[in-house]
Specification:
The radius of gyration is 20 Å and the shape is globular. It has ten helices and 17 strands. The longest helix has 17 residues. α7 packs parallel to α8. The chain has two domains: 67 residues, Nucleic acid-binding proteins (OB fold (Dihydrolipoamide Acetyltransferase, E2P)); 236 residues, Rossmann fold (3-Layer(aba) Sandwich). It is of the alpha/beta class.
Length: 351
């Protein structure tokens, strides 16, 4: 459950889109904290803050911040007056939690995109690339733009990891290279808000005019070490959604030569489960040429081998650092090459 603390802001640190780091004095200790100004207001030195320190106490990697829950003595102003476009939304996300935001959905009555979304029925063959970890996104994008520099790529974020898109410094760094960010389900903070992955994909195609959509969960996945206990199995459902809507579903394999856990060495058991058992619609499962690991049985899918020439250079030129589970490209090259190969395949399908 929640581990509560009260502290005082000592100093402000890095900021990026939607997020701010700070150092907080809690008793005799000093802790690193993260605030989302759109939810709690902008912290200042000397502010008293209420914190949830659970992730930090547990020593979680991606989530190892104390989270600012409130600045109780200096509350932020209410949003724009009811009736204005900014405050006309009815989408409640992170529902029935104390910090549930109310947002304007891309297909709501008050949305400027309502008519477009109401008429949207098909992805018109748009490639939909899925990956089970957020860290695959920059590799996929790097390969797409290496082969098709002008391609418009939209990112569709699932809600299996971080709910606020603001948590991701990767998204902050990639924003100039993306057509937009669409947060779906319980996730929020994107360029556009959607209630389901289906509406998110339709918005990518018809509102953002994307040539390609990339679908992953946000950073900080949930896993229990069991076959089904991993939030990333949702990419199998994303395959189904993309195919149902008339897109070209593409699966990026999770591959590792550097992960110390046996279940993730070679092709991860997560890919075998998500694509082999959850995805019921056929998809292109991309294998980078020269992959030194055996593939799991994926009988309903099309196995596509993609050359990797030039992909290493494209990956090294990424505008954001490449890192998966703390490992860089040099420490786990096949992970990033597999994701990049999926991006290259998608780029080759753009008309």
């Amino acid at each position: 459950m929640v581990r509560w603390r009260s502290g005082t802001v000592l100093s402000l640190g890095r900021t990026w889109r939607g997020a701010a780091e700070l150092q907080v004095r809690v008793g005799t200790d000093e802790v690193r904290a993260l605030a989302y100004p759109d939810l709690v207001g902008s912290p200042a030195v000397g502010d008293r803050v209420l914190l949830n320190v659970g992730a930090q106490v547990m020593g979680l990697g991606t989530g190892g911040y104390a989270m600012v829950v409130a600045i109780p003595d200096r509350l932020p102003a209410d949003p724009a007056a009811p009736g204005t476009t900014r405050d006309a939304g009815h989408l409640v996300k992170a529902r029935y939690t104390p910090l549930q935001p109310i947002l304007l959905g891309v297909d709501e009555e008050a949305s400027p995109h309502r008519a477009t979304m109401a008429a949207a029925e098909s992805l018109d063959g748009m490639p939909v690339v899925t990956a089970d970890l957020h860290s695959a996104l920059p590799a996929i994008l790097a390969a797409v733009h290496a082969d098709r520099p002008a391609a418009r790529v939209a990112y569709v974020m699932l809600d299996g990891g971080a709910l606020p898109a603001w948590f991701s410094r990767t998204l902050d760094g990639l924003a100039p290279a993306l057509a937009g960010i669409i947060t779906t389900g319980q996730s929020f903070g994107g360029t556009l808000e959607a209630s389901t992955v289906h509406t998110g994909l339709l918005a990518a195609r018809h509102v953002l005019a994307a040539d390609i959509a990339v679908v992953t969960q946000g950073p900080g996945n949930l896993g229990t070490g069991t076959t089904w206990g991993f939030s990333g199995v949702s990419v199998g459902e994303a395959i189904n959604a993309g195919a149902t809507l008339g897109g070209r579903a593409i699966g990026s394999l999770r591959v590792s030569s550097g992960d110390g856990r046996a279940r993730h060495q070679g092709v991860s058991h997560h890919s075998a489960t998500a694509y082999g058992r959850v995805a019921l619609a056929p998809a292109d499962i991309v294998v980078p040429a020269g992959l030194p690991f055996p593939l799991p049985s994926l009988p309903r899918h099309r196995i596509v081998t993609v050359p990797t020439d030039g992909l290493a250079d494209a990956l090294r030129a990424s505008p954001v650092p490449l890192s998966t589970m703390g490992r860089s490209y040099d420490q786990d090259p096949w992970y990033f090459l597999a994701a990049a190969a999926a991006g290259r395949h998608a780029a080759g399908l753009v008309v």
